[in-house]
């Protein structure tokens, strides 16, 4: 308003100047209460403009004085708001840095100044108490937040973390369940519930959670598919362990088969499904499952399951079947190892040595050292065999090979291990190896090296090779257990003993 009046005054001044320059000042007369004033028009315009400006300034001054109390209150409110924002910012930064006393001081300041953000003040009080390691105060702060609808989700999460910190799994699960029921978008609550199902071996509950998470779009369809297959496999493995003496249950067979078909890259599903299908006499279906899994991800447990599908074949016939499987992925490491194994089974040490040359660039592991030792013994080189055993004694284990237990069965894990396997595969598509992580013994550990020995009978000259070449049905298959006996037999002229059977199947690798 003052700026407008000042502008009008300037216009009046310019008009007066213009009138004076053209020499026509004009006449202005004013009669009021007996007074008469005569002047030029230019002077009258100038006086009127000046009076208007003075009146405007006076009026604005009066208004400014009248609005002083409201202006003071507004300034005070803005100061408190600014102080409150500053206290909240500094408090959360202090809590994130682990400065408990500093965070509590700022929380106290925020409670005094921040009237417009009570939720943030309460949250800062809880975080400050956590930073100060005052669990009781933090719990009280979170419990106070439960009384406000917009703060309940954060309160449940805070209470869950406190319960986990003191080892109260039941209370943590209760808080996660309450949070999961409040909203459809709480991934942390779903994750907590899922971890509980995995730890408890509750495969049905885990499957239900996966379906709920997929419907709420908490997880992607890919993760849901992997998790579903992993849960079904874990349940099938549990059922298989419970009904080991009474034969496979139809539920276990159906679950493992569905998982293997949905996710061929999940090796445990294919191995367990093939094992169960073989036990019920469905060998062709088992072969199809193994072949699909081998195409997706070759694994030593797969070719061992493939090998054991037929128990009434000669070593050459078995070797031919293994060679067919190896041809699916001829350049894969497992296929190269399989080519050596099938040559050893057929009794062709020369072919086994040629196949082993493809493994020369591979890092040495205990499994490869054992394979090379058996190969050298098949070629009639016991001294070289012992050298490979010595090298293998300090070589690292193989992760995939650790999935085969000491009894020769693959993926016979406890429920706790299955929980970790399911979680890793569902989240990242990786197959976890619990025995490998723990450094536990797997199938076919290196046999004991004798302290002294004499030159033993060349392997290629034994009746074992002759029987294999003739295709005898009862020809022994050379495996790890026989290997230890042959190596320590000294100068015995007897051939390697026949393989001991596991449920009617050879134990050879």
Describe the structure.
With 509 residues, this protein is mainly alpha-helical. Helices cover 66% and strands 3% of the residues. The protein is built from 24 helices and four strands. A hairpin with a 2-residue loop joins strand 1 and strand 2. Helix 1 runs antiparallel to helix 2, helix 10 runs antiparallel to helix 11 and helix 14 packs antiparallel against helix 15. It is elongated.
Q: Classify the beta-strand content into a percent band.
A: under 5%
- The number of distinct structural domains comes to 4
Spans where pLDDT lies below 50 across 5 or more residues: 448-478, 484-509
Number of H- or I-type helical stretches = 24
Described by strand count, sense and barrel closure, the largest sheet is: 2 strands, antiparallel
Assign the structural class, choosing from mainly alpha, mainly beta, alpha/beta, alpha+beta, or little secondary structure.
mainly alpha
State the end-to-end distance. 98 Å
- Mean pLDDT score, rounded? 80
Q: What is the rounded Rg?
A: 43 Å
Helical fraction: 55-70%
Q: Give me the side-by-side strand order of the main sheet.
A: 1-2
Element order, helices and strands? HEEHHHHHHHHHHHHHHHHHHHHHHHEE
The 3D shape can be described as elongated
What is the β-strand count? 4
């Amino acid at each position: 308003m003052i700026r407008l009046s000042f502008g009008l005054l300037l216009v009046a001044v310019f008009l007066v100047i213009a009138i004076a320059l053209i020499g026509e000042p004009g006449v202005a007369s004013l009669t009021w209460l007996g007074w008469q004033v005569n002047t030029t028009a230019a002077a009258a315009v100038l006086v009127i403009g000046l009076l208007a400006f003075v009146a405007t300034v006076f009026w604005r001054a009066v208004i400014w004085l009248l609005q002083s109390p409201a202006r003071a209150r507004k300034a005070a409110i803005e100061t408190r708001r600014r102080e409150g924002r500053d206290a909240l910012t500094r408090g959360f930064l202090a809590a994130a840095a682990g400065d408990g006393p500093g965070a509590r001081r700022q929380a106290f300041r925020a409670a005094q100044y921040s009237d417009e953000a009570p939720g943030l003040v309460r949250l800062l009080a809880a975080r400050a108490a956590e930073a100060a390691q005052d669990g009781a105060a933090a719990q009280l702060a979170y419990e106070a937040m439960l009384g406000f609808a917009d703060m309940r989700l954060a309160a449940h999460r805070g209470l869950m973390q406190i319960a986990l910190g003191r080892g109260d799994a039941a209370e943590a699960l209760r808080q996660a369940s309450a949070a999961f029921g409040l909203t459809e978008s709480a991934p942390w609550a779903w994750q907590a519930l899922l971890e509980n199902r995995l730890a408890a071996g509750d495969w049905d509950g885990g499957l239900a959670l996966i379906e709920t998470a997929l419907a709420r779009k908490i997880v992607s369809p890919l993760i849901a598919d992997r998790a579903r297959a992993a849960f079904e496999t874990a349940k099938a493995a549990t059922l298989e362990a419970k009904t080991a003496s009474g034969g496979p249950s139809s539920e276990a067979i159906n679950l493992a088969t569905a998982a293997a078909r949905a996710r061929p890259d999940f090796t445990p599903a294919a191995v367990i499904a093939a094992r169960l299908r073989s036990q019920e006499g469905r060998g062709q279906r088992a072969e199809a499952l193994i072949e699909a899994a081998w195409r997706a991800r070759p694994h030593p447990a797969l070719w061992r399951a493939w090998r054991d599908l037929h128990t009434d074949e000669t070593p050459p016939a078995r070797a031919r079947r293994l060679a067919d499987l190896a041809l699916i992925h001829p350049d894969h490491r497992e296929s190269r190892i399989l080519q050596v194994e099938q040559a050893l089974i057929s009794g062709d040490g020369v072919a086994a040595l040629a196949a082993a040359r493809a493994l020369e660039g591979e890092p040495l592991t205990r499994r490869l050292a054992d394979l090379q030792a058996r190969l050298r013994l098949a070629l009639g080189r016991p001294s070289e065999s012992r050298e490979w055993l010595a090298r293998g004694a300090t070589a690292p284990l193989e992760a995939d090979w650790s999935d085969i237990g000491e009894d020769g069965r693959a993926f016979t894990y406890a429920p706790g291990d299955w929980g970790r396997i399911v979680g890793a595969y569902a989240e990242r598509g990786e197959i976890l190896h619990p025995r490998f992580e723990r450094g536990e013994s797997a199938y076919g550990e290196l046999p004991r090296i004798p302290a002294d020995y004499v030159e033993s009978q060349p392997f290629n000259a034994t009746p074992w090779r002759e029987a294999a070449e003739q295709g005898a049905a009862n020809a022994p298959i050379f495996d790890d257990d026989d290997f230890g006996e042959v190596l320590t037999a000294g100068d015995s002229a007897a051939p390697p003993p026949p393989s001991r059977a596991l449920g009617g199947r050879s134990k050879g690798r």
